[in-house]
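Hi V.,

Quick status before I head out on leave. The structure for the redesign project is tokenized and pasted below; the design run finished overnight.
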């Protein structure tokens, strides 16, 4: 099967050695990816942004990085200066996930930025979790999404990495809300993390949730809903850091083989989820790139640099040519 211009709408590439190790897996499977800015220090100014973009371009070929910056109280001049080089601005509530210590503490403080983004047609990407009980954090954030969507009706808001099915119903209620779905929230449940021996490699934010959540997410994705887009949230950490408790799943190597099995027999919906929905929702200008999957048994890598991938060593029916 041939996919046209696959796009990963949520990706962590890190920088330096780690970036060099992980980027080839995304480049082989995708035409473009939205690159998350939660580095240390965060990508939150033009100088750092252009340096980072350059590092990605130097380490890839025939691949478009759609870069994001980390939300802060930007002035109008700063925002105008960034606009040409960003796809969106990423809002992390302070302290809620990996490297988000400098995130937003009080939403109202960035209201002027959201107002300007709305005028300039810059989308807002959101890590939607409160600091409540860990399994309720996404559900509790629904009210924040409702408020944002109502207060800024012209602002396109992306609810990232949906793990709680209840959030998906917002898509039909608010015209300006969109969602990304990861491979792990689509295919795994919390059992994979803590049901048997503890598996730190499947620990991520937001936590993977219940079979019911997974079933509803699968239903939405299979329906071809226009506002649901693939965003891997592939987030590599060294094995050493994973064993210390770092949140994030490195799924990049197995994405298209795993999705090809999930969408078996329905390449039309696969194409929408992996590319068309994103391109039409955000008018993305990404050069065309065809990616072919062939039916040939393939085994996922056991290790990439010092990172253990999702489904390490697992056999798949399809292979990326
Ligand atoms: C991400 C990371 O490691 O950067 N971790 C994760 O568990 N998903 C950050 C994020 O997207 O929350
Ligand atoms: Zn992420």
């Amino acid at each position: 099967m041939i996919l046209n211009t696959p796009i990963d709408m949520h990706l962590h590439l890190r920088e330096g050695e780690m970036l060099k190790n992980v980027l080839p897996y995304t480049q082989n499977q995708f035409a473009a990816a939205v690159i998350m800015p939660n580095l240390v220090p965060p990508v939150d100014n033009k100088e750092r942004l252009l340096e980072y973009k350059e590092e990605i371009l130097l380490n890839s070929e025939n691949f478009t990085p759609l870069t994001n910056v980390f939300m802060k109280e930007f002035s109008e001049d700063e925002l105008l200066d960034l606009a040409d080089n960003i796809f969106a601005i990423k809002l992390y509530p302070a302290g809620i996930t990996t490297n988000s210590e400098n995130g937003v503490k009080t939403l109202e403080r960035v209201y002027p930025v959201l107002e300007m983004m709305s005028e300039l047609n810059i989308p807002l990407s959101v890590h939607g979790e409160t600091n409540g009980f860990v399994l309720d954090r996404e559900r509790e954030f629904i009210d924040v999404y409702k408020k944002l969507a109502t207060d800024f009706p012209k602002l396109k808001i992306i609810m990232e990495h949906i793990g709680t099915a209840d959030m998906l119903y917002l898509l039909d209620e608010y015209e300006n809300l969109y969602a990304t779905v990861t491979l792990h929230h689509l295919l795994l449940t919390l059992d994979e993390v803590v049901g048997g021996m503890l598996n730190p490699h499947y620990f991520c934010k937001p936590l993977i949730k219940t079979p019911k959540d997974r079933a509803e997410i699968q239903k939405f994705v299979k329906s071809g809903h226009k506002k649901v887009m693939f965003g891997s949230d592939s987030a590599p950490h060294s094995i050493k850091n994973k064993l210390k408790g770092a949140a994030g799943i490195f799924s990049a190597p197995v994405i298209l083989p795993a999705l090809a099995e999930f969408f078996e027999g329905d390449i039309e919906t696969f194409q929408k989820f992996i590319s068309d929905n994103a391109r039409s929702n955000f008018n993305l200008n990404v050069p065309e790139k065809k990616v072919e999957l062939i039916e040939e048994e393939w085994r996922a890598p056991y290790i990439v640099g010092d990172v253990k991938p999702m489904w390490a060593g697992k056999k798949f029916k399809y292979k990326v040519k």
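Above is the designed sequence. The domain at 2-320 is CATH 3.20.20.140 (TIM Barrel).

G. will cover questions while I'm gone.

Best,
W.
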